[in-house]
Write a structure and sequence with these properties.
7-stranded mixed sheet; alpha/beta; 18 strands; binds zinc ion; 2 domains
Length: about 300
C-alpha cells in the first residue's frame, strides 16, 4: 500500500499548490480520495495511469474536494475507458454530477457507478477480495465522511527452495500460499507451514478531512498504519478553526495519540501560511511520528 499526495492545501488557490487529493495504491489498483480542481494535471505530473483508477471517494460537497471530478469523469470517456468506474460521494455531489451529465447530454464510454452516501453511521461501502473501504462520519459544516481503507489478510509467501527440495509440483504453489497442505510427486503429504512463510501484515489508511476535533470516530481509526488528519490552522488561529469546523495542529496530534496510530500525515493548510515548519513543531509536542503533505510526496504505508 502506498500513497501519493496530489494536493496539500485548503480551499483558496495558491501558486504551484493544489487542494485535497490523495491517490492510494492498494492491491495494484488506484483509489482516488477527493478530487481537487486541477487533479488531472497532478495525475499527469506524477505519471499516474488514469486507467488504473478503479474507485473515487469524495468526502464532502465543498469545492476544494470535488471540483476536479466532472473534468476527470469526462476525460476518462475521451480516453475511451470501457471498464466501470465507482464513485462514492455525498448525495448532494451525486446530484450535481447527474445534472451535469443531463444538461450536457454527455454519453460516457463506460459505466459510471455513482453511489450516494447519506448515513451518519460508519458503513462498509466496498468489500473487495483484497481490501475494504469504510466510511468515517466526520464533524464539519456540511455532511462529510472520511474513509478507512484496510487490506485483507495477505497470502503466505512461498519458500521456493524448500518447495523444490520437497518435490512439489508447481501447480500446487498457489494452494500452498492459501494455507493448504499438498501431496508431492512421490505421494507424500507436505505441510504448507514447512514451505511457506507468513505473508506481509495487512496495512490500513485513514483519511480524515475536513473535520473539527472529535473523538466520535476514534474506534474506527485505532492503530491504523497511517492517519491523515487535516490541520487547516496553527494553534494561534484556534478561533478560526472552531468557527469553520476545522482542526488545528494540536487537534491532529491529540487524535493520533489517542488512536495510537503508527504515523500521522497532516495537510489542508490554510493559504494564509507560506511555511509549514511550525505545523510540524506544534504537532510534535504531542505526537512525534508526523509528516507534512506536499505535492508529489509518496509514502509507503
Ligand atoms: Zn476543504
Ligand atoms: Zn470543507
Amino acid at each position: 500500500m502506498n500513497l501519493t499526495i496530489l494536493g496539500s492545501q485548503g480551499a483558496l488557490p495558491k501558486l504551484n499548490k493544489y487542494s485535497s487529493s490523495h491517490l492510494l495504491e492498494v492491491c495494484n489498483k488506484y483509489i482516488l480520495i477527493d478530487c481537487c480542481e486541477g487533479v488531472q494535471f497532478q495525475l499527469r505530473k506524477n505519471k499516474i495511469k488514469f486507467s488504473k483508477i478503479e474507485v473515487i471517494l469524495i468526502s464532502h460537497a465543498h469545492g476544494d474536494h470535488f471540483f476536479g471530478l466532472i473534468g476527470l469523469i469526462t476525460t476518462l470517456s475521451l480516453l475511451r475507458r470501457d471498464k466501470d468506474l465507482e464513485v462514492y460521494c455525498p448525495v448532494s455531489v451525486l446530484k450535481i454530477i447527474q445534472a451535469h451529465l443531463k444538461y450536457t447530454n454527455l454519453k460516457l464510454s463506460y459505466n459510471l457507478k455513482l453511489k450516494g452516501l447519506k448515513s451518519n453511521s460508519s458503513e462498509i461501502i466496498k468489500d473487495d477480495s483484497c481490501y475494504s473501504i469504510h466510511t468515517i462520519p466526520l464533524t464539519h459544516s456540511v455532511y462529510t465522511n472520511g474513509f478507512l481503507i484496510k487490506e485483507k489478510k495477505k497470502r503466505r509467501k512461498l519458500l521456493l527452495d524448500k518447495a523444490i527440495e520437497n518435490n512439489i509440483n508447481k501447480i500446487f504453489f498457489n494452494k500452498l500460499t492459501k494455507g493448504h497442505n499438498v501431496v508431492n510427486k512421490y505421494g507424500v503429504e507436505i505441510n504448507y507451514l514447512d514451505v511457506t512463510s507468513n505473508g506481509d501484515k495487512p496495512k490500513s489508511y485513514a483519511y480524515c478531512s475536513d473535520t473539527a476535533y472529535s473523538e466520535s470516530y476514534l474506534n474506527l481509526i485505532k492503530e491504523v498504519d497511517l492517519l491523515y488528519c487535516e490541520t487547516t490552522f496553527l494553534e494561534k488561529h484556534r478561533d478560526k478553526a472552531s468557527s469553520t469546523h476545522h482542526s488545528t495542529t494540536k487537534d491532529a496530534g491529540q487524535l493520533a495519540l489517542k488512536a495510537n496510530v503508527k504515523k500521522l500525515l497532516i495537510g489542508h493548510f490554510s493559504s494564509r501560511y507560506d511555511y509549514y515548519d511550525d505545523f510540524l513543531g506544534e504537532v510534535k509536542q504531542i505526537f512525534n511520528n508526523v509528516s507534512l503533505s506536499k505535492e508529489g510526496r509518496k509514502l509507503d504505508i
